[in-house]
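Hello,

Following up on my earlier ticket. Below are the four sequence lines again, exactly as submitted.
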Amino acid sequence: MDIGFVGLGRMGRPIARRLIEAGHDVVVFNRTPGRIDELVFAGARAADDVAAVCRGRSVVVTMLADDAALTDVALRPGGLRDSLSAGAIHVAMGTHGVAAMSRIDAAHREASQRFVAAPVLGRPEAAEAGQLGIVVAGPPDASEDCAPLFEAIGRRTFDAGTRPAGASAIKLANNFVLGCAIEAIGEAFALVRKHDVAANVMQDVLTDGLFGCVAYRTYARIIADEAYDHVGFSATLALKDATLVLAAGEAARVPLPGANTLRDRLLGAIAHGDGERDWAVIAREQARASGLG
Amino acid sequence: MDIGFVGLGRMGRPIARRLIEAGHDVVVFNRTPGRIDELVFAGARAADDVAAVCRGRSVVVTMLADDAALTDVALRPGGLRDSLSAGAIHVAMGTHGVAAMSRIDAAHREASQRFVAAPVLGRPEAAEAGQLGIVVAGPPDASEDCAPLFEAIGRRTFDAGTRPAGASAIKLANNFVLGCAIEAIGEAFALVRKHDVAANVMQDVLTDGLFGCVAYRTYARIIADEAYDHVGFSATLALKDATLVLAAGEAARVPLPGANTLRDRLLGAIAHGDGERDWAVIAREQARASGLG
Amino acid sequence: MDIGFVGLGRMGRPIARRLIEAGHDVVVFNRTPGRIDELVFAGARAADDVAAVCRGRSVVVTMLADDAALTDVALRPGGLRDSLSAGAIHVAMGTHGVAAMSRIDAAHREASQRFVAAPVLGRPEAAEAGQLGIVVAGPPDASEDCAPLFEAIGRRTFDAGTRPAGASAIKLANNFVLGCAIEAIGEAFALVRKHDVAANVMQDVLTDGLFGCVAYRTYARIIADEAYDHVGFSATLALKDATLVLAAGEAARVPLPGANTLRDRLLGAIAHGDGERDWAVIAREQARASGLG
Amino acid sequence: MDIGFVGLGRMGRPIARRLIEAGHDVVVFNRTPGRIDELVFAGARAADDVAAVCRGRSVVVTMLADDAALTDVALRPGGLRDSLSAGAIHVAMGTHGVAAMSRIDAAHREASQRFVAAPVLGRPEAAEAGQLGIVVAGPPDASEDCAPLFEAIGRRTFDAGTRPAGASAIKLANNFVLGCAIEAIGEAFALVRKHDVAANVMQDVLTDGLFGCVAYRTYARIIADEAYDHVGFSATLALKDATLVLAAGEAARVPLPGANTLRDRLLGAIAHGDGERDWAVIAREQARASGLG
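Thanks for your patience. The regenerated structure is below:
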């Protein structure tokens, strides 16, 4: 396929590389320069702006950090909406809020373009290995047209229906369930520590039995070791996601008490100076609220 | 070993049977009669009361449903405290509150007896197969003396230190972490459903990736299928555990916001008539609060 | 009336004195001695134990600190249940849990006695001035028989129906609403302080307008001045009440999210060493959670 | 003074009229036409657009419904920022979020204009009577210059410092404290009702004593009478304010657990179809969660 690609951050680069290596014709653009060389070396062409990325492309992928960046790339004058030809597809692979998705969806529809949400599950290493999970929502024909693209980068797709906001909801909810698990681990550890039991006993019990999966193995260890300075995902970024999931709840009239708790622990952690530590640091905030350390 | 055993319910019977089959000399007693025959047939002797169970025993195991039953068996006139000889061990394998454990521990110490908390992880089938996890806390010599007993029934022990209440805290926290996972699944499902995505898409996403473990596989399926009438653990019993974990938090001055949310959903579910359904029914309560169904 | 009176603490003494001064024939007893002299001087007779207080009395009032004390006085051998004559009335004026009230009510009924709950609203100064509010629940004839007693000590009675637990629920709920107001003030102050506005501006706004009443005037001032060492009601006692209101909610299947928040702030305050400060110190705990101070 | 006035809704009209009646020279503009006649009849001049309102004015007041309207009026091409002369003052009297205030403040500073936040406390009747409370924050000289304006419409000003966002925080926090009071009343009523006591007993107890102020008298009555169809402030509008107070908390890193509870009850009420009822309807949502009615 002929593919445009906007957003070459930690996730965007390995995804773009996979597309190139699978033989697709890829034009890339990044708003801040300097990350393009390796992809050009791998076979991509560099575009000077968003409009140039769109020229003659049937699909343009965005992998952007937040709603502001996506909205800017998509909707400003000369952006995707203005530059894509009728029938072309915008595939948004970042983690975005439902309101931004709905707004961009409406704009593309009005311009007779097609918009597909395809947020990905997995870390940069999974992207490099082509092992991402991809949650896809959009017009069925557009999703089908993107199948070769998804095959090149993912292990599996999940069909989240025809409304792009639905894929965002799934992705945000997945992160949120992880946050709840971290919060629960933090509460459990604080409880047993104040009953004079070492945290790693709780860690063993949890991960030996019901919770023998990546989420608990990873985060129970980080929390037991208080290894918050090795940052997979910072508290500040996690707050952004927590705010997005609460906004998704507000839009659909869904109270999410677990998300409130998560958000409050993140706010407390950031207020105490832990904003750039790994979001598992909410367990330290729980410890603080319990009079520990 | 010569073992007394009090409490022959769904968990107590298979555990007692394992002890008999391992060659231990077991005397059994149940407060409500009628469940003893199969164990007598397997080789146990039946006692007429708690005092008779204690006679000549170096270890007496209790596997009782709640704190009231345990306190009654241990502390009433003619109970374990009055009947065990000095140095004998009371092993409490039920799920109990930290206050009850501390009170019973003090009573046994005063009577020069030894008290070991050994709550178990696993369902009746695991008990039958000798595959329980056992969280052990008590005087180190007493825990060691019980090693043959634990070997007969468990797959693994976890050392939770010397204070029996610590083992209770671990066990309650483990259940609580599970409750938080169920609550999070319920919130996630309500969110995506109100964004027009079927619950089973969320189920697939969760259990395919980060959460590929028993807890999430089991409960995401129950909730997606709304299979609340197949009851593994009722909402009413779960409320008892939630109250115990909150009391453990109160005793140690640990706020547990996740436990508050769990307890409130359980109360709401019970208020709506779902008390005898599986505790995963809190997801229905979440749906209700979201205006679904 | 001929009245027995048990419990001569900070509230009990002024209430008993009002009864004596109103011309009632009063016999008093306190479990810890030494507080009786002033009442004997005022005209009361001193009894040696609960049984002696009950002798020949048609009404016995209890004003006790907690459920354990009340249950002990009422239900132990030789207590009120054993000593009151048939038809006599036990009036419980303390703040008690709904479960204790229901249990004591049942015991008195079984002994053909009458039980009236009459928790009071107001502080010791109001008791001295005969200006208490009294929430009354019990058998209508018993409540009527107590009218002269209530007239001597109170400004007003509130009819809370025929079930004693109902009066407890009202009293606990009243305290709880106050706790929620304190919590809200604490959150509001933390918010404006972190937006660089002094707390006393918020205090002025609140108490000038919608909230020009004792609750807000009193607590907004305490919190703005951080005057937590002048203790009207300690955080530790407030935790007891918060636990009772949550138990009342659990008994009736009522989730009380505001009570969860209140309880968690109290636990945090106590964990941080503020347990014996005024319960308004939960505002300091809120400040702490916000990274202030 | 020569005053421009934008926003002639339920609050804007009586405020503008007070200014005219106090002898100020007032030019008015409303984005939707038709509400201007009565003010012109009272002595105002009508402007055709925002730019015309600004012409020759030293002060322009805005009283707009939300952040979107304010941002549009202030920042779009031809808006206040573009049209006010250097040194002129924009006084924003609506209830706005802290982020919008900071953004508009920065824009006016850049244009050498002065920005004063002056959100008002009170309902339309208070505005008509010139009895509003006014929370003022901005450059001290600008606030002073506005004194005659504030005197014409208010009973009292509150000095919230020099940052406009601070006045917003005060106003939002005041509404939030009221929401918490309503929530607490709703929880208390649900609790006593499920203990078989009529809600109006609780109402009497609350408002007779600690809570004898407008907030509790008003809302306890609405809730006891379930008079939610007489709408002072709708649940949907209250949700907007709850979201703004949470955003103010997020901006300043302040967890607000009471605001979470309030927001969730509002969401639940709206999900159940009560969005256009008075926000006291959150008490009905609490009742629903308790299995009542």
